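New to this. Help decode both lines:
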Amino acid sequence: MDRNMSRVLMLALVTGLALGCGAQTAEQPAEEPVVEAVEVVEDVVEFVEVVAEGSAFDPPVAVAQIPEGVFYCPMETVHFASLEGGTCPTCGMDLVEKAITVEEEAAASEDPPA
């Protein structure tokens, strides 16, 4: 009987150790996911001045800097813009009119003129 009792105790001890190793108990909190803070900075775009006969930009400017309604050369960056349509004197491409973007329209509706 002592021998059987020893075997049962040994089996219970081994099973307990096997089940307990690596198991998370209620006292051990789960690891929280790491969330990094990201600072959001609103971009403020400074529009360039465009004259009626056209303005050349060297260095070129971003399309976002061209005011609404102005015609510009549709290259990756803008090197020429005019208040009237026509062709770019630098590369010969047709000028395209800058329309208001969805983002600009949303911003305009949120901030009514004072």
